[in-house]
Amino acid sequence: MKKVASLIVLSLFCLWQVAFAQKTITERETSDLLPINRSTHEIAGRTVLRYEHEGSDRLGSKVAQKRFFDVVAPKDSSSKHPLLICLHSAGEKNNTEWRLNVPRIAAAGDDFVGLIPNCNFDTEWWWGHDEIMKDKKKHQDSLTPIEARILAEIEWVVQKYNVDRNRIYMHGISMGGSGTLGIGMSHGDMFAALCAGVPAGANHMLIRQKGSKDKNPPPALVFFSQADDWSAEMPLLLKAAEENRYAFICAWGPWGHQNHYEMTNPAAFEFPWLSIRRNEAYPVFTNTSSDQKFPGCKSKEPDQEGQINAYCRWTNMKDQPNEFAMQIRLVSKAELKNKIELPNEVVTDVTLRRIQQFKIDPEKEYRWTVARSGMRKAEGRVKADTAGLITIPGITVTAQPLRLTLVSLSQK
Questions:
Q1: Where are the alpha helices (DSSP H) in 95-202?
Q2: What are the backbone dihedrals phi and psi of residue 20, each rounded to the nearest 5 degrees, phi first?
Q3: The overall pTM is greater than 0.85
Q4: pLDDT-derived band at 333, boundaries 50, 70, 90
Q5: What is the DSSP letter of 133?
Q6: Rounded to 10 degrees, what is the CA torsion of 293, 299, 302, 305?
Q7: pLDDT exceeds 50 at position 260
Q8: Which DSSP category does 232 fall into?
Q9: Which of these, 336, 192, 171, 339, lies nearest to 259 by C-alpha position?
Q10: What is the rounded distance in angstroms from the CA atom of residue 327 to the CA atom of residue 341?
């Protein structure tokens, strides 16, 4: 009995060690940074502080090379701040792009903190994708130094600038778009939502998502162009989103590798991604009747300008142990600055992710109902899959909000 008790205690101690290591790894990596403020600038009405820190085996190169990142301080001194991280493109080798990201952060709101990391060293190029390709086996289950450093820098900013952990967002252009999807989609425990502009490849995300155990990757807004050579991987990205039920809102057009995605469908360009919270449920729309088909790289097929999932909006209504409810509707013309013809209705499959309180057990059945103006329009039963995800097929969405409700079969 003593031997059995000893083994039980030893096992519990080992499990505690693993849990403790997982909980504190970011804090330990953060302690390696020791950033020093080297300069301060005033840009777009915001104070920008440049911090510098040493490289290391885990968070940089083996050589003692200086790494740096810029922090855009908030103007609004509210108690908690949302954070917008901007990953630069390959053009930052000219050391100018960081200045261009400050107005983007300022436009997000006076309460926003901004983080502009840098990855100018060869060992960090393409935000870790190149290092992964050099040794796929090594990085199959481990972060590259630049990926680890970005997460550590984010954690340092979160702690120093009193950031709301439920409102952390990442944006990237070109090479930064590739990094945003590669780093962000496998860390739904950190990011509320992502935005990738003309991503220079999707391979980083495709590699990371294969090994990701994250049940709830963040919703992502993605803009690309069939006239861009980098769009060759976009069909693979769209396929992965459909098969894995990722919440992707996409738009494209024939203007090439440019970050002027204000030229895309306004319902996509003006999508309120910075209002999504990490501690709230969100819907994934698939097989949506209003979706257009991406023509493919350099293709002259139809839908030269198009969108996927740009028209639907949602509001969380109830997330309690015994009931979940969400309002879903189409965006209205009044909400959009740039006018466009909108569909009267769309039919879509709805998968629910990031549910907080309502308990969903894998392979258990639940009752769903759809109501408008208090009148029930549809109902049925749905079985959760092995991952605990529920998908309700064929929901008709119009400008008039519908209320989608879930209860367990034991509820009346």
A1: 97-108, 129-134, 145-160, 175-184
A2: -65, -40
A3: yes
A4: very high
A5: H
A6: 70
A7: yes
A8: G
A9: 171
A10: 23
**Would you call 262 exposed, middle or buried from its count of C-beta atoms within 10 A (0-12, 13-18, 19+)?**
exposed
Number of CB atoms found within 10 A of residue 211's CB: 11
Res. 8 pLDDT band, cuts 50 70 90: very low
Pairwise CA distance, residues 108 & 103, whole Å: 9
Name the pLDDT band for 60 (thresholds 50, 70, 90).
Answer: low
With beta carbons less than 8 A apart as the criterion, state whether 85 and 99 touch. Answer: no
Residue 278, both tokens: 């990490």
Length of the chain: 412
Amino acid identity of 180?
T
What tokens does 191 get? 């990011």
CA pair distance 111, 75, nearest whole angstrom: 6
Q: Render the burial of 394-405: b for 16+ CB within 10 Å, e for the rest.
A: ebebeeebbbbb
Pick the range with the lowest mean pLDDT from 104-108, 153-157, 256-260, 291-295. 256-260
State both tokens at 136: 């796929």
Between the CA of residue 186 and those of 18, 196, 214, what are the distances in Å?
Answer: 20, 15, 6
What the block records as the tokens of 177 is 């778009």
Tokens of 340: 């466009």
Looking at the DSSP bridge assignments, the partners of residue 395 are 348
Q: Which two tokens stand for residue 66?
A: 């200086």
Cβ pair 194, 271 in contact under 8 A: no
The single residue listed with the structure tokens 């590739």 is 178
Report the alpha-carbon angle 230-272-221, nearest 5. 20
- 264: closest CA among 309, 220, 305? 305
Is residue 295 within 8 A of residue 383, CB to CB? The reply is: no
Q: For 338-376, write each residue's pLDDT tens digit.
A: 989 999 999 999 999 999 999 999 999 999 999 999 899
